[in-house]
Design goal:
Elements (H helix, E strand, L loop, with lengths): L1 H29 L18 E6 L2 E7 L13 E12 L8 H7 L1 E7 L9 E7 L7 E11 L11 E3 L10 E7 L4 E6 L15 E7 L7 E2 L9 E4 L8 E10 L5 E3 L6 E3 L14 E5 L2 E5 L8 E9 L10 E2 L9 E4 L7 E10 L11 E4 L2
Antiparallel strand pairs: 1-2, 2-5, 3-4, 3-6, 6-7, 8-9, 9-12, 10-11, 10-13, 13-14, 13-15, 16-17, 17-20, 18-19, 18-21, 21-22
Length: about 375
């Protein structure tokens, strides 16, 4: 009897457990369905880097991927690790990726934020410490995610730096003339390692018009002198300039210096045009036709013509025949009387309102 009672209690407990499990399962199934969790992001596998030496610095750059790359790449990028390997330049170029990984030095880590992604260019500056040595530098970067997973190395960038790169130009100034903004500078007095003679092939001049644009080079080939005339400017705009020295690199390539100081130039047109020239008059009954050469300036707005029957009258008292600025190079004076002699002079006006000096005075008698 007692055993039968125990068996009944045991079955009863099992039934309760089964009911509880069924209840929990039903509750979970009947509840609101949650969206599936996104797959774990992984790290982008490859990136291409570029770089160059300027002065005593190697400038590295690369393009960042979008925050969400295609499936199969490693995402969730947390940082960029930058590696450098230095070796004598006379060794053979047979470095494998495994050898680079074992021998290179992690020189810096750049922590990334959401604003760093999306085809933006990242840069890094490596100050050279190998001046005077025959050295070869090999750079590579790799992405690392928040879990510490490392992507493959980028391409290997090889640079053979030279210590005999000239320093940047000094005392850069601008002189504004009517035809050009003239940029002037003093040459550097030493190379970046303070050695002489200075390794100078020439100079490159850079300009930009506003904060949004990037600096672009103005000259087609290195300037041999210490000044440059920028004729491709417009009065009233603002420009920024800097200059770099160009040196001969270790393998015959051209190497630029660091930037000179940057100067701001806001040219204003305060230059009066030249006086009109080659003025002639053709006489006809009741009409004196005036002809003259177009001014050479590019910003001429037009001309004014003045007349008097008294040559000795002060020029400020002569009659203005063209209250509206004349925009052609001919004019007919039909307000003339037969037998009278008329005297004329002209002025030119540019777009900024600058007025030329009076032209020569010419005269004609109406037939």
């Amino acid at each position: 009897m007692l055993n039968a009672l125990k068996q009944k209690i045991l079955y009863s407990n099992k039934a309760v457990i089964v009911l509880i499990v069924l209840y929990l399962f039903t509750a979970l199934c009947c509840g609101k369905r949650k969206p599936p969790l996104p797959p774990v992001e992984r790290v982008l596998q490859k990136v291409e880097i570029a770089g160059t030496q300027r002065g005593n610095i190697v400038f590295l750059s690369w393009t960042m991927p979008a925050r969400n790359a295609p499936a199969g790449n490693i995402l969730n990028i947390d940082r960029v690790d930058i590696y450098r390997y230095a070796e004598p330049s006379n060794l053979s170029l047979t470095l494998t990726e495994d050898e680079f990984s074992a021998r290179s030095t992690l020189i810096n880590t750049i922590k990334l934020t959401n604003n760093d992604f999306g085809l933006k260019t990242q840069t890094y500056k490596d100050n050279l410490e190998f001046a005077g040595q025959q050295i070869r530098l090999i750079y590579a970067i790799r992405f690392v995610n928040a879990e510490g997973q490392k992507a493959a190395f980028s391409n290997f960038l090889l640079i053979e730096p030279t210590a005999k790169v000239a320093k940047n130009p000094e005392k850069v100034i601008a002189e504004i003339t009517e035809p050009a903004i003239i940029i002037k500078w003093n040459p550097p007095t030493a190379n970046v390692d303070d050695s002489t003679p200075v390794n100078i092939l020439g100079y490159n001049i850079y300009r930009k018009e506003n904060e949004v644009e990037v600096f672009t080079i103005l000259n087609n080939s290195a300037e041999s002198g210490t000044s440059y005339s920028d004729e491709s400017f417009i009065f009233g705009k603002k420009y920024r300039y800097f200059v770099r020295t160009v040196s001969l690199g270790s393998d015959g390539e051209k190497v630029e210096s660091l930037d000179s100081i940057t100067i701001d130039v806001s040219p204003k047109d305060t230059f009066a045009p030249s006086a009109p020239e080659a003025i002639t008059i053709a006489a006809a009954p009741g009409n004196l036709s005036i002809f003259f050469a177009a001014n050479p300036e590019k910003d001429i707005a037009g001309y004014k013509i003045y007349r008097s029957i008294d040559q000795n009258l002060p020029l400020t008292e002569w009659i203005l025949l063209t209250p509206e600025t004349l925009r052609t190079n001919t004019f007919q004076d039909k307000q003339v009387e037969r037998g009278k002699t008329y005297f004329y002079y002209l002025t030119a006006i540019d777009n900024a309102g600058n007025i030329s000096k009076p032209s020569e005075i010419i005269s004609e008698t109406a037939p």
